[in-house]
Design brief:
This protein is an alpha+beta fold. The chain is built from 13 helices and nine strands. A five-stranded mixed sheet has the order 4-6-7-9-8. Strands 1-2 form a two-stranded antiparallel sheet. A two-stranded antiparallel ribbon has the order 3-5. It is rod-shaped.
Length: 542
């Protein structure tokens, strides 16, 4: 209907400039089909741009105007071809000189001007200019530069009415559009829309070459009297021109699919960016919370350290006066008084031990524990620790085995802190073992070897006590952790011993771990360095 209406209007408009290039070869029918296909493709793209409201956006508005001009040009040339076909007997003849620029169609004794001053190239070049300007706006939006002004076309308008100049300008504008589309693609290679623009600009560039090539050759051959040569080239250039029409139309039809893909990718990208922003804010919030918790933890450690220090003095005084009373310094005491004072002394020592543990934990957390690193004879140190537990081990009827190779080298560390580690582990072994034995072993730790030499010694204390569930092994080194609350009243303790032991071992650049089978016993092992230089670096096995 649009084609018919356009044609009927043209029949009743005298001296109407249609602008088309007359060709005299059979492939004209195929080319007309190409123009119909091109019109449908342009119409679909125009409707899609309006549907997505792209014509209101920067860059797209000029591409939209460009497409309108291309559509009008396609209709004009189509109707011009149709008019030529209808009035073929009236149009056969020479086209040299000024007749090439002014030709009439005679229908029903009326003359209609259908070709004047290459009007089609005015439309083509203006359309290509808007296409180029739309691409430039997209590039300027990405690069934040000022777009090229549309006024650059104004000085060119007077020469657009000539065929040769029109061809040259059309080729130049299409080449500039192709170059600009490549620039746009390089700004964001992952953008499928910019990739599509390169293909579309390339299609228009190919069309400009195919169309202008035939026109330029015709202008050279016809005036020079080489019409026979032109008759040879005309079908070739015409077929190439027809192929270009289908190519431009096919690429244009891909716009809908490409834009839908672009919108889907853009939406996914937007969601991903939103998630990244949320994740960043969440991480920042966690970091702020972490800093706040660290400050609170440091404040807590400082408070515990100060309070523990203040509590030690009165507790030592209570223990001292209790021992003095038990020694009858102030006179004899009764058996009942001795029993009561013994309970006071035991409770005071237990409370003092708790205060000492809290003080040690707070010092470890605040990194105030300094090591006096010296060479240590581990065998002698273990024997000293065992002496303080001999009476308790004998009282519970347990057996004790010590397996330490006489050839083992000395270890390096703080003797007081290593002794504290051994006391904590041996104390737990004695406390939770009611029958059986306790074993102490030491050997070179073969998991860390450098240049064929071991770097650490492994010390293990094993018992046949109550054991630990496998699920609880990961928690036993946490502060105030007592894995079975039913045993809290049965076994005295603060739940800080293993946490202190872990902190002291890590200060020695070592590690501590436990293996156990519930009901059969446990084994606690830790490592100590064999070289003093290890304290200057972080060990590989931590």
């Amino acid at each position: 209907m649009i084609f018919l209406a356009f044609f009927l209007v043209s029949m009743f408009l005298p001296v109407q400039a249609w602008g088309y290039v007359p060709h005299e070869y059979p492939a004209i029918y195929t080319q007309q089909l190409g123009r119909i296909f091109l019109f449908i493709a342009f119409l679909v793209v125009l409707l899609s741009i309006v549907h997505y409201r792209l014509h209101r956006l920067r860059g797209w508005r000029y591409l939209f105007i460009s497409l309108i001009f291309f559509t009008i040009w396609d209709l004009i040339v189509f109707v011009g071809r149709l008019s030529e076909f209808i009035s073929m007997p009236s149009t056969i003849g020479g086209t040299e000189g000024w007749q090439y620029f002014r030709r009439y169609i005679e229908i029903g004794r009326l003359e209609y001007l259908y070709y004047l001053g290459r009007f089609d190239f005015v439309l083509l070049n203006v359309a290509m200019l808007f296409f180029y300007w739309g691409l430039r706006e997209h590039v300027s939006e990405v690069r934040e530069k000022n777009p090229v002004s549309v006024t650059i076309i104004l000085p060119l308008l007077p020469i657009l009415i000539t065929d040769m100049a029109g061809n040259a300008i059309f080729i130049v504008l299409s080449a500039m559009s192709l170059y600009t589309s490549i620039q746009l693609y390089r700004t964001d290679r992952e953008n499928v829309l910019w990739n599509y623009m390169v293909w579309l600009a390339a299609a228009w560039f190919m069309f400009s070459i195919s169309r202008s090539f035939g026109h330029i050759i015709r202008h050279v051959l016809i005036p020079t009297g080489n019409g026979d040569v032109w008759k040879f080239f005309e079908p070739i250039t015409g077929s190439f021109n027809t192929f270009s029409l289908f190519f431009v139309g096919s690429v244009s039809l891909f716009f809908i699919r490409i834009y839908k893909s672009y919108m889907a990718i853009t939406e996914d990208k937007r969601k991903l960016e939103s998630l990244v922003i949320e994740r960043t804010h969440f991480i920042e919030e966690l970091e702020r919370d972490k800093i706040a918790l660290q400050e609170l933890d440091q404040l807590k450690s400082a408070f515990l350290a100060n309070m523990s220090h203040e509590l030690r003095t009165p507790m030592n005084t209570i223990i001292g006066y209790t021992e003095a009373l038990l020694d009858s310094v102030d006179g004899p005491i009764t058996a009942e008084q001795e029993k009561s004072l013994g309970k006071v002394k035991q409770s005071a020592k237990h409370l003092l031990k708790l205060i000492d543990d809290v003080l040690d934990v707070s010092r470890l957390e605040s990194a105030k524990v300094k090591l006096a690193v010296t060479e240590i004879d581990l065998r002698a140190l273990i024997k000293t620790v065992i002496l303080s537990f001999e009476s308790l081990i004998w009282k519970k009827g347990l057996s004790l085995s010590v397996n330490i190779d006489q050839t083992l080298p000395p270890v390096y560390g703080d003797e007081v802190k290593i002794k504290q580690i051994l006391i904590i582990l041996l104390s737990n072994a004695v406390k939770f073992t009611h029958a059986g034995e306790i074993g102490i072993t030491a050997h070179l730790y073969d998991a860390d070897i450098q240049s064929g030499q071991p770097l650490f010694m492994e010390i293990c204390i094993a018992d046949t006590g109550i054991g630990i569930h496998q699920d609880d092994l990961r928690k036993i080194f946490e502060k105030f952790m007592q894995i079975d609350f039913a045993l809290v009243r049965q076994y005295e303790g603060t739940g800080l011993g293993l946490s202190i032991a872990r902190g002291l071992v890590e200060l020695h650049k070592g590690k501590i771990w436990a293996t156990s089978k519930y009901g059969e016993g446990s084994t606690f092992c830790f490592t100590l360095p064999l070289k003093k230089e290890i304290f200057e670096q972080v060990p590989l096995h931590i």
